[in-house]
UniProtKB/TrEMBL annotation:
Enzyme nomenclature, EC number: 2.2.1.2
Gene3D superfamilies noted in UniProt: Aldolase class I
Encoding gene, per UniProt annotation: tal
Pfam families: TAL_FSA
Any one cellular-component term (Gene Ontology): cytoplasm
Cellular localization per UniProt: Cytoplasm
Protein name: Probable transaldolase
UniProt organism field: Hydrogenivirga caldilitoris
Length: 217
């Protein structure tokens, strides 16, 4: 499973990249606004840093506007993926952009049928939001299982980006289901490293190392 960071914070992206486990980035207007920085400045840095797809979101509500914005975003870098909301107008835009070789990521997906529609429209990626479903007492991971099954049934190439991740269990379940990608906040990625027995083990080894005579380092 590929690991994407769901952030527009360049420092978080650089840190994850230094660990060698970053496969891509997803952003949205909220994440970009959190940086407080000019859009183009932030995006340029992200596109240069990331050796993989970077999703940038459109904000128009009509297909024509989305296509226009999508083309402008795609000009910013070869690894740009245009994020399009799951609406009928959005699906029109997906067809146009994909036919021009611009990959799209259909976002704000909350049902299996929305995912099927996005795949039928030709989207390269689909982003079901598990955390926001859990927030309203829905079952986020059930959605991922169902989309996975549907895409398998019809041999669809659209990749599933499990989005709106809240904690490591979401990531574990996404991997067990076999989702293609998980896009997560930096804080969740950091937590994936953690295990108390790892920390305890390091502490013990260091303590014992002190007792070794004539150490080489
Ligand atoms: C996905 O691409 C979205 O940016 C993101 O996962 C939304 O997550 P949130 O529900 O934490 O805002």
């Amino acid at each position: 499973m590929k690991f994407f960071l769901d952030t527009a914070d360049i420092n978080e992206i650089k840190t994850a990249n230094s660990w060698g486990i970053l496969d891509g980035v997803t952003t949205n207007p909220t994440l970009v606004s959190k940086t407080g920085r000019p859009f183009k400045e932030v995006v340029k840095e992200i596109l240069e840093e990331v050796d993989g797809p970077v999703s940038l979101e459109t904000v128009s509500l009509d297909a024509e506007g989305m296509v226009k914005e999508g083309r402008l975003l795609a000009e910013l870098g070869e690894n740009v993926v245009v994020k399009i909301p799951m609406t009928p107008e959005g699906m029109k835009a997906v067809q146009v952009l994909e036919s021009e070789g611009i990959p799209t990521n259909v976002t704000l997906v909350f049902s299996p049928m929305q995912a099927l529609i996005a795949a039928k429209a030709g989207a390269s990626y689909v982003s079901p939001f598990v955390g926001r479903l859990d927030d309203i007492s829905g079952e986020g991971m059930k959605l991922i299982r169902e989309i996975k099954e549907i895409f398998y049934n019809y041999e669809m190439d659209t990749e599933i980006i499990v989005a709106s991740i809240r904690h490591p269990m979401h990531v574990l379940e996404a991997a067990l289901i076999g989702a293609d990608i998980c896009t997560m906040p930096f804080a969740v990625l950091e937590k994936l490293f953690k295990h108390p027995l790892t920390d305890k083990g390091i502490e013990l080894f260091l303590k014992d190392w002190e007792k070794v005579p004539e150490k080489p380092f």
